[in-house]
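A brief tutorial aside. Many learners find it easier to grasp structure tokens once they have seen a single protein encoded end to end. The record that follows does exactly this for TraR/DksA family transcriptional regulator. Read the sequence first, then the structure, and try to relate runs of similar tokens to stretches of the chain.
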Amino acid sequence: MTPAKKTQKQAAKKTAAPVKKAAVKKAAAKKPAAKAAPAKKAAAKKTAAKQAVVAAPAPAAPEQEAHQLRTESEQAELRAALQERLDELVAEQRRYSDSIALAQRERLSDTAGDDQIDSGSKTVEHEHEVAVAGAISERIRQVGHALERLDEGEYGFCEKCGKPIPAARLAAFPSATLCVSCKQLEERR
């Protein structure tokens, strides 16, 4: 027999043979020793990572950024922009409400001669207008909430984690109440 075949047969005999208690104890003794070395390395990596996190000045930048939004002139600009958006939304909601009311009156007064397709089309249009009006109402609520948070001094900070919301997010969505990571977690649910 070749030496490779002999080692294969010996390995097969060892795996096929019943395991003795002494052998199990030896194997058990070897496993903690093998695990102890990587644990030390992992602990060393964790302490190095903690030191790196402590040494990194990057987390201070968003906090400074949020506090810079709190100056009097910028708060006044934010309040003006939010109030302007609120006024636009209220005017748009009024237009939709008027349109819905007019369509409702027309539908009730002039249904003679309508076939099923016309009736269905009017119903779909009505449902669309109601859905848009509902979305506008939700936006009005969000902007109003942002104005309240601005008055309370909480504007620009996440409602869930308390961390500052980046200025770029607030510029894109001024009524944001959650930071990007909290919003992503909320959307996943």
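Self-check: The chain is about 80% helix and 0% strand. If you spotted this yourself, you are ready for the next section.
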